[in-house]
Amino acid sequence: MGSRTAAVIRHVAFEDLGIFREVLAARGYAVRYLEAGVDDLAGPLASADLAVVLGGPIGVYETERYPFLVTELRALERRLAAGRPTLGICLGAQLIAAALGARVYPGGKKEIGWAPVALTAAGRASPLAALEGRPVLHWHGDTFDLPRAAQLLAGTDVYAHQAFSLGNGILALQFHAEADARRIEQWLIGHTCELSHAGIDVAALRRASRTQGEGLRAAGTRLLSDWLDGLR
């Protein structure tokens, strides 16, 4: 099998591909991380067989604070317009929504912790079927409107728009199906200010991660594998 390329935009060091890295390696993808705000994104996003846009603790709309977001959005717009396979996670999902013309905005409430998503009928017929009844890691306070022509796949009571697809090649996940719970301590350290401000019980979140981690590893692996199978 010839090597395929995966360009992965990373916004903060510890929010990486997690368990998804193993799936991509097994499928023959050569992974290249692109550091947002540092590396050139346009060329790699245009040429890569697959693009993955990861999470981060900033808002899509914070372009004055983080001007690189404008460049990132433009590169993403071009890739999506070309119909190239693209996966977005958390901030990455919000960036895909914005690049498709939808509004992204503060939701007014933090959703942090382990909980399942409710799948729509389309979600149950999609690779997200792997998550049926399975708690996933939520870590966000922003939300987005559903892009035009996108198919809603999942929601929660807190935020109705948790995942969407556009054709077979564009998938956006507001939650973290890629998180490697064995490395949750990096998240707890890196997001300590956010956790404190949100009043999150860090010890309880750590315990839940230990309990739910292996189940998510299996479900997340199946989700990504099934989605890659559907790419033409």
Write the layout of secondary structure elements.
Elements: E1 4-10, H1 20-26, E2 29-35, H2 42-47, E3 50-53, H3 68-81, E4 86-89, H4 91-99, E5 104-115, E6 118-119, H5 121-124, E7 136-144, E8 151-155, E9 163-166, E10 170-173, H6 184-190, H7 192-198, H8 202-229
Parallel strand pairs: 1-2, 1-3, 3-4, 4-10
Antiparallel strand pairs: 5-7, 6-8, 8-9, 9-10
Helix pairs in contact: 3-4
3D architecture notes:
With 232 residues, this protein is an alpha/beta fold. The protein has a single domain, classed as Rossmann fold. The protein is 35% helix and 25% strand. It has eight helices and ten strands. The protein has helices spanning 20-26, 42-47, 68-81, 91-99, 121-124, 184-190, 192-198, 202-229, and strands at residues 4-10, 29-35, 50-53, 86-89, 104-115, 118-119, 136-144, 151-155, 163-166, 170-173. An eight-stranded mixed beta sheet has the order 2-1-3-4-10-9-8-6, sandwiched between helices. The chain has a two-stranded antiparallel ribbon with strand order 5-7. Helix 3 links the parallel strand 3 (50-53) and strand 4 (86-89). Helix 3 packs across helix 4. The model has no long low-confidence stretch (mean pLDDT 97).
